[in-house]
Amino acid sequence: MFTMQRSRRFGVAITAAAAATVLALSGCASGGGDGGGDGGDGGDANLSVTFLPKNLGNPYFDTSSAGGEEAVEEFGGTFAEVGPSEASPTSQVSFIQTAAQQGVGALVVSANDPEAICDALDEASSAGVKVVTFDSDTNPECRDLFINQATAEGIAKVQVDLIAEQIGDEGQIAVLSASANATNQNAWIEMMEEELAANHPDIELVEVVYGDDDDQTSFDKTAALLQTYPELKGIISPTTVGIAAAARYLSTSEYQGQVALTGLGTPNQMREYVEDGTVTAFALWNPADLGYLAAWAAQALITGEITGEEGDTFEAGKLGSYEVGADGTVLLGDPYVFDADNIGDFDF
Amino acid sequence: MTATAPAPAPDTRTTRTYQAYATPLWRRVLANREAAIIGLLLVVIAVSIAVVPNFDSPLTVTYLLRDIAPILLIALPMTLIIITEEIDLSVASIVGLSSVMTGILTQAGLPFPVAAIAAILVGTLAGVINGFLVTVVGLPSLAVTIGTLALFRGIAVGLLGTTAITDFPEFWSDLARDNIPGTPIPGIMIPFIVLAIAFAILLHFTPFGRSLYAIGLNKEAAAFSGVAVGRTKFALFVMSGAISGFAGVYFTLLYNNARGDNATGMELQVIAAVLLGGVSIFGGRGALHGVIAGVLLIGTLGSALRLAGVTSDIINVITGVLLVLSVVSASLLAWLRRRRISAIGKKKERELAASSS
């Protein structure tokens, strides 16, 4: 009987000790990282900023968080990044609650769902946490500021400018879009048509084809376009799937270097095509700048420099001065153009 | 329980009296798995308060209890089901289905209480389907509920697609989120405690509850002793469906969000907590207070580790290791006990051989 009792108690003791050790260790580990944040409470303002991306391990958000961290270091706050491993609608809630419990100065969130995290954000706000959204917004009443990466006008204009420059401002172009009812793409294409008509009369948009954001379909549509229009000089693809598929087709065809290609793409997808000369330049926003601006906006909210009202202005380090627009939105600026000179600086 | 053997009078053999229990009361109360889990929970809470910054705030209690409330609720019927050596893997899908029903009916203009009751009825119906397939058709519950896990989730996602319904009456969503006035305890704990007491009485103090253990240990023996095995199990699956439906309504209000993929994967959290709480997956063993401590332990550990800045992957690793350790330690103890008993037997044999020679 005694052996059994002892071993049973021994087992319980081991499990308890293991759990206690784990907690103690993690507590110590965080003590080092968060110490600054807690110490900051004693000062004038609590400049601890927590970034909560849609999910961790996503190169896009790794880049934006790196930008945020840079900004936080510049204004002397403490930076932390937390997030769920998968981007499901309610998975961010527990992290928002944790930030409220920790009493961080500001929470910078890219929302997985515009509504599901709203109440948690409201509660964090009432606990004194400033809430800034970036990349994906929540309903406007749930946050203090939204850092918008680009406007539809800006996205349409940069792509038209790029193609005009690459084909010498004259000739036939085509558009390879996502699906025929994609809201964003349709809005951009409409604005591109207006921009072409207004400022580039010698460029003719011959056709808009739809690759359905499917790699193979986009690839086939590119091939068909080039056969239908032998005089075609350029293709705009305002979708990351489309531009990558079109570049893949062009790079292996006789049209490489003959037909210009631009649009919205990510550096990692486009790197090889920029390096082999298929694509000269393409556009997107710079997530690092987006995170950088979001962190500065958070700082301005914490210090009370701004309240998020329309017309408020604040300084954002190297990016200069920004003004809050309607609905508490701050616009990052014109889309960022990636080319052979700068693509090496990006990894997302 | 007091098994004093009546001595047959004409026999010359001496009367043997047996102790009612082999070990004293304090040992029976303290040295069991439930007590171990409660002890571990207290250790985790104490260590967290000592080393994790901000853990000791009232917000921690509120958030913790609110987030684990659906798991606490569903763990109640799940405990009973696992004690009878069955399992219900479809609970999280029923939560999703009930959430979608609440959303669709509210959007269709029904008053919220009607929509909520309809959603709970849908959950109950889902439980009836599970129960029917397990007891009347006689299929294994593991297979049945893996099937209905996919089926109910499929219906839920199919009904709403990828859209979400997010407009619910403020009165009800506030009710789901508000605390009991003057305390950091969320209001959802009131229905939970009522249900927990009801389930505890049902499991530990009624013939019905006792029959669950009998079924779990040996269902043929239970059937021959007059337990209606099929009907009992059917009732459990229906209860599980109804409670999951209720948890779905609560989940919807808590996040103000009715979506087909709500609570995906929650069945595993529930089952993990139930097993951690000392219920044997082979049936016939377990108690409700252990299960409640198990849910609280997983929740508290997660909350403390998140506050300490540990990433969710590491938290999953730690909960996983804890669960494996608890199951392994149970098997290890059982093996040790068997070895001891057989050692006692062998010793007796040797003594007998020695004395007779």
Automatic annotation (TrEMBL), chain A:
Range of residues in the leader sequence: 1-31
Domain of life: Bacteria
Subcellular compartments: Cell envelope
The keyword Signal belongs to this UniProt entry's keyword annotation: yes
GO CC annotations on file: outer membrane-bounded periplasmic space
Any one biological process term the GO annotation gives: rhamnose transmembrane transport
Protein name: Rhamnose ABC transporter substrate-binding protein
Species in which this protein is naturally found: Agromyces luteolus
Gene from which the chain derives: rhaS
Automatic annotation (TrEMBL), chain B:
PANTHER family: ABC TRANSPORTER PERMEASE PROTEIN YPHD-RELATED-RELATED, AUTOINDUCER 2 IMPORT SYSTEM PERMEASE PROTEIN LSRD
Oxidoreductase as UniProt keyword: no
Organism: Agromyces luteolus
Name the record gives this protein: Autoinducer 2 import system permease protein LsrD
Annotated localization: Cell membrane
A cellular component annotation (GO) from this entry: plasma membrane
Membrane topology: Multi-pass membrane protein
Top-level taxon: Bacteria
This protein's UniProt keywords: Cell inner membrane, Cell membrane, Membrane, Transmembrane, Transmembrane helix, Transport
A molecular function (GO) term: transmembrane transporter activity
Signal peptide: none
Transmembrane segments: 35-55, 61-82, 89-108, 114-135, 142-165, 185-205, 234-254, 266-283, 290-308, 314-336
Main location: membrane
Cited CDD domains: TM_PBP1_transp_AraH_like
Keyword Transit peptide: no
